[in-house]
Amino acid sequence: MDLLVRLYALEPKPELDQRLADAGIAVRRVLAPELGLVSDWIKEEFGPGWASEATIACTRQPSACFIATKNGKLVGFACYDAIARGFFGPTGVSEEARGAGIGHSLLLACLLDMRVQGYGYAAIGDVGPVDFYVRAVGATPIADSEPGVFAGLLRYPD
Ligand SMILES: CC(C)(COP(=O)(O)OP(=O)(O)OC[C@H]1O[C@@H](n2cnc3c(N)ncnc32)[C@H](O)[C@@H]1OP(=O)(O)O)[C@@H](O)C(=O)NCCC(=O)NCCS
Fold it and tell me: What is the largest CA-CA distance in the chain?
């Protein structure tokens, strides 16, 4: 199922930014020289499909891929305009870093950037953790959206 987010109704969350900064976590756009490193990390943590999507997002200018770093190491990523224009995703946070607000912060970084790029709404495709998006940004289900833009997707062998 796909979800819809009203970008025009989103507010930045400075208290979340401060919480992450206090924990030594930075959320920012990927820089071009980091493409290989980011793509390799995503492939290792989440598989080749998401690494491919992130590569598409990183090769836009400005890059449509954001990362979270702690102590000089990657702990999460989020993209938009990868599977289709106006779509958020994929996103992932390394298992040991979950539950600290990083996923929420990466999501907001992308969605607020989409608004700056001129979008009024964002779709989130083929959602796993629906409650995460409902809670973080008030996302709502899109009727008849399955299988949506992912229809017929070829799968990598295990
Ligand atoms: C989904 C994911 C990115 C969330 O990252 P995270 O850093 O753990 O999330 P946060 O700590 O920012 O959580 C923000 C809020 O969402 C809630 N939340 C987090 N993961 C959730 C989940 N899977 N289901 C429901 N709620 C969730 C948190 O409890 C928190 O709520 P609160 O603000 O009331 O405290 C992470 O669990 C992940 O990488 N999962 C595997 C990959 C994945 O499923 N990606 C999404 C594909 S559509």
Answer: 44
